[in-house]
Amino acid sequence: MSNTFSLETMTFVDRARLKLMQFLGEEKVRAVFNGDVDLDLSSGSTEDPTIYGELVSIVGLGTDINKKLIVNVANILDFNLSMPKYRFYIEFYDVKSLSQTAWMATITSLEMNYLVFRYLHESGFIHSAFTLGYEAGINKNPIDGNLVPPGALVSFVQKGLQYLELEANLSNNGTDVDGDFSLLQPLDLITKDVYELRQMIKEKREKLEKEKEKDREKEKEREREREREREHEREREKEKERERQEKEKERDRERERLEKERDREREKDKEKEKEKEKEKEKEREREKEHEEHVEKEKDREREEKVKVKVEEPRVSTGPEPMEITTATSLGSSNEISSSDVTILEGHTSEVFICAWSPTGSLLASGSGDSTARIWTIADGPCGSSIQNTPTKALVLKHFKGRTNEKSKDVTTLDWNGEGTLLATGSYDGQARIWSKDGELKNTFNKHRGPIFSLKWNKKGDCLLSGSVDKTAIIWDAKTAECKQQFEFHSAPTLDVDWRNNVSFATCSTDKMIYVCKLGDPRPIKTFSGHQDEVNAIKWDPTGSLLASCSDDCSAKLWGVKQDRCLHDLRGHNKEIYTIKWSPTGPGTSNPNQQLVLASASFDSTIKLWDVEQGSALCSLTSHS
């Protein structure tokens, strides 16, 4: 059945009109409500037609908004009913999808009166609640008050405001809009319609977008400023690099100038040497002529006299100093007789190290009994009656109180070049200097682990220590001040050795060897090649060759001008724990003798090495 409804007739669907606009468009809805266009309404049936008219469903909308609105109506044609009494609204469960919609009944005036009555009563407005209840006949209302939760009216109003707020945040066609959800004040939601609310939200979003745009512009400006700063920094770096290169060129030119100056000096020296050589040659010629003249005179004298020349026999006194001999040349037995041994007794625990004073008959020893001792050795052969007398020793106590404290084990010691001072290192990480009379001169505290190696430099003003704490330290011997701590190793430092008065080498269980110099923050040379812990290092007498030995069963020779080892000395089949240079070759009192390196291993052998060829000279195998 078709009916035309005027705007006045349809005032009860004002809320529905807004929703219909989202589907049919504003013009068509206005035409329907003005009576210009018919709505096709089909009648329906209900079991109780007297309750109220109910829109049952919306059908036929889909995506075609030009279809006529067809609704099922229950008793809608009974115009004897008071139409304003009935209210309805359309609840769209998903405004983005036209298929999920439903018509739902609104609350009746009786139900609204009851909600207001409950609100007044719950809020304490007793008289107002009584008046409303009397006038509205609340007592005749069939509503079960127990089913209505407290605060129901406030909850519905709040949800309505939220719905309006959500509706205001949608676009005119009911779809989402890009941008953040905007919150509105309750007063605005109550006093303004949806169009005004949408305009407010639009203005807010435009303002927010302008602020964001300003922020983006500011960020772009800051980024441009940062880019300018980075460009300036790059320019400064380039300038520094140019200055560095210029300084490097200047240093190169200075080195070239000095080298040329040295070359000229060497040429002058060579010329002087040539002149001297010429003078010597002339002198030798004159001496030769003189000798020939003298010889002629002697010949004439011998012709007059008869003399018998007796040649004295030459007596062999054994091998020359540091001459290499074989085991057979030493005789059938090379063991030392017990009668030729002097035993020094006094320590109460194992003795780790001993060292002779370079200038006198003093022997220093370090022990696990927390003491070092200075022994005075009498002159004369060992085992003689003089040597058999009890030997007195100066006891250098490293711990006052109980002895045999593990933290006070004396692990290393070294005499200075004059033999006047003895340096000791102990397990507690402290180094000490004692006079040869046993007086404690200085204590050095900085290491955080046991000291395994301690060496004086030749000048005697500095002391070098290596520790389990992975560091080496150069100390001022007089003031006990730490002049520099070197922290390059990644594992305990096992040995240190001076090259000269300011530079030295260190080795470690990290398999590395570093050559360092006082005042330099980084190593001046790094040697790597050992495959296991490096146990000991020793510079040769000239300071040009460094020998090292390792648990990898090899010893190696290193040159200060090369990065790789000069010789890899292999022959031992177990770990090598110590090495020693012979007192021969350049820089020693036997400069014409061959320089030899000795190595001792856990394989019970000692090997002597030709350092020029990198080969073994002989192997001493008497130890078992």
TrEMBL record:
GO molecular function: transcription corepressor activity
Positions of the UniProt region annotated as Disordered: 206-334
Ranges: WD repeats: 344-385, 403-435, 444-485, 527-568, 569-619
Domain of life assignment: Eukaryota
Cellular compartments annotated: Nucleus
InterPro entries, A to Z: Ebi-like, LisH, Tautomerase/MIF_sf, WD40/YVTN_repeat-like_dom_sf, WD40_PAC1, WD40_repeat_CS, WD40_repeat_dom_sf, WD40_rpt
Protein name stated in the entry: Uncharacterized protein
Keyword Membrane on entry: no
Single Gene Ontology BP annotation: regulation of transcription by RNA polymerase II
Listed GO CC annotations: histone deacetylase complex
Keywords: Nucleus, Repeat, Transcription, Transcription regulation, WD repeat
Compositional bias of kind Basic and acidic residues: 206-314
Composition skew (Polar residues), residue ranges: 325-334
Protein's organism: Taxus chinensis (Chinese yew)
